[in-house]
Each structure stands twice: as structure tokens, then as C-alpha cells.
Design brief:
- This protein is an alpha+beta fold.
- It has one domain.
- The chain has 3 helices and 2 strands.
- The chain has a two-stranded antiparallel sheet.
Length: 112
Amino acid sequence: MLTKINRQEAIHKFPAFPLRHYNSKEEEDIYNYPKVFANYILTISSKSYKGHIKILGEQILFLTHSLGYDNLILLGDSDIPWLKRSDTQNNYQNALQYLVGNKIGKRFNGAL
């Protein structure tokens, strides 16, 4: 189930989210990221693309629960609304339709 969280509220509650914004005077993106103290590359093996997606979902859920959490918060690093992002790949379009089906509006740029 998706729960919408206002962008400013999410940033206020979780200020360590990586963020960026466009500086029109400098004509460049400004990045704000928390200090990285470690990083990992996690991989999964599968025999097909569909199998990969299924296993990835299962493993993200397993990792979330193993870390002692019962949910994840996703927030885009820029303030572009979720439905304004575009890509021609079918899976991307399917993901957008999933968001629309869960009542994510055209202007919503908060956390999910």
C-alpha cells in the first residue's frame, strides 16, 4: 500500500535524504548528500527478467524486515513530480500507471 507524504514534511522528518535543486544563476544542479561511511553492492541471481523483478522485490522486503523496519520511504532527489518523469521503456510506463492507480496526482512530488 502506498502512503503519500508531503515533500517538505518528509524532508523535515528525515533531513538526511539526498537532495538536489537547480541553481538558475549558476546554471547547475546543487547536490546535498549525507556523509557516506560505507557502501555495498548487493546482487541477486535470476534466470529471466521477470524472475529478476520478482526476486528483487522479495529481497528488498526481506532486507527491510531484517533491518527491523516495516516500511520504506522513497523520495526523489529533485522536486520534479513523480508523473512528470518520462521514459519510453514499457516497464517505466507500467510503473507510472501503478502510481496513477494509487492516486498519485500529476503535481505530487513528495515521498511514497
